[in-house]
């Protein structure tokens, strides 16, 4: 069997951090990708692993320019490697994963992984997660699933996966969409496929798209702030089926008058938004005003997608059709 060539891109996160047991200053980056790879058992002759040291960023410090750079590193190396593994902090991992899912062609397996426990903690999960991710990236079926997230030997798709726990090592879930598969001792097993893949070939990313979460009694304050800050688009995490408190409507109206696209998703964890309700602030009114409905995407994923579509210069009138499979 021909050996698989895998590129590990080390971005940062708790997986390269330590300090919990010794320092009063908290957990901080102390390692790099090469240090992590030294902790792995040997892959015999099946896998050639190269390492790209991108950085040692805690993932709250990751922004879309980093995501764009990581995407370009993969694109540049697409024909040289059979698969890619990215080690990343868990906090914004799902956003980087979805960004890559939307901006890479469906050609190679790309697996993001992380750790919930730092390198000097009892029961550290980093090396095991990297080892399993490399196996997924090198598996013959990996490329069918495009961008995946592997933690705790579960395989998730980039579109639905989300961080659900702040500390447990079983910290990721695709909620009712479920796992794509598992990494078992003898093999990588996939149980389901995805139906929809998208690919947007952007050449820059500089759009300003804030995400605003709504609550009982919310008003237009944050929407007006976004308008004043020259937002290119605004994502609103609305209530339930996609409804807003009435005092949010004037802000939405002002944004739409300024031709700023408003994308509505729900703060509920599962299910799609839909223009069902006809009361003041209900989805029917939002639709009539010209809001776009973002299906079942979470706020943070919807923001990634709208940013990319705006970077693609998709005309505002056409944006709705890009969310029809969400
Ligand atoms: N705060 C860390 C980060 O996202 C958490 C982690 O990596 O698990 O970088």
Description:
- It is a single chain.
- With 326 residues, this protein is α/β, with parallel strands linked by helices.
- The chain folds into 2 domains: 187 residues, L-asparaginase, N-terminal domain (Rossmann fold), CATH 3.40.50.1170; 113 residues, Rossmann fold, CATH 3.40.50.
- The chain is built from 8 helices and 16 strands.
- The strands form 4 sheets. An 8-stranded mixed beta sheet has the order 4-1-5-6-7-8-11-12, with helices on both faces. Strands 13-14-15-16 form a 4-stranded parallel beta sheet, sandwiched between helices.
- A hairpin with a 2-residue loop joins strand 7 and strand 8.
- Helix 2 crosses helix 3 and helix 5 runs parallel beside helix 6.
- Aspartic acid binds next to loops.
Quick tags:
Rossmann fold; binds aspartic acid; alpha/beta; 8 helices; 2 domains; 326 residues; globular; four-stranded parallel beta sheet; 21% strand
Short description:
With 326 residues, this protein is an alpha/beta fold. It contains eight helices and 16 strands.
């Amino acid at each position: 069997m021909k050996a698989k060539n895998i590129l590990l891109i080390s971005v940062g996160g708790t997986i390269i951090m330590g300090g919990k047991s010794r320092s009063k200053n908290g957990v901080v980056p102390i390692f790099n990708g090469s240090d992590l790879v030294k902790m792995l058992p040997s892959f015999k002759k099946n896998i050639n692993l190269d390492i790209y040291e991108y950085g040692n960023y805690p993932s709250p410090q990751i922004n879309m320019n980093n995501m764009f750079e990581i995407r370009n590193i993969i694109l540049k190396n697409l024909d040289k490697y059979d698969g890619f593994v990215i080690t990343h902090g868990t906090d914004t991992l799902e956003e980087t994963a979805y960004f890559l899912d939307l901006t890479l062609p469906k050609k190679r397996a790309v697996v993001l992984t992380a750790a919930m426990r730092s390198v000097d903690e009892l029961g550290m999960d980093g090396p095991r997660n990297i080892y399993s991710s490399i196996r997924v990236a090198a598996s013959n079926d990996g490329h069918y699933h495009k961008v995946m997230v592997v933690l705790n030997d579960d395989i998730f798709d980039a579109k639905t996966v989300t961080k659900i726990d702040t500390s447990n090592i079983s910290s990721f879930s695709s909620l009712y969409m479920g796992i794509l598969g598992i990494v078992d001792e003898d093999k990588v097993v996939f149980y389901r496929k995805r139906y929809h893949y998208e690919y947007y070939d952007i050449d820059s990313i500089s759009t300003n798209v804030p995400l605003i979460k709504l609550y009982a009694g919310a008003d237009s304050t944050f929407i007006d702030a976004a308008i004043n800050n020259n937002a290119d688009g605004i994502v609103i995490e609305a209530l339930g089926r996609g409804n807003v408190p009435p005092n949010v409507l004037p802000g939405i109206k002002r944004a739409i008058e300024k031709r700023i696209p408003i994308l509505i998703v729900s703060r509920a964890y599962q299910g799609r938004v839909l223009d069902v309700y006809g009361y003041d602030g209900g989805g029917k009114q939002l639709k009539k005003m010209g809001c776009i409905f973002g299906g079942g995407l979470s706020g943070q994923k919807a923001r990634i997608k709208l940013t990319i579509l705006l970077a693609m210069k998709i005309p505002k009138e056409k944006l709705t059709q890009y969310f029809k499979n969400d």
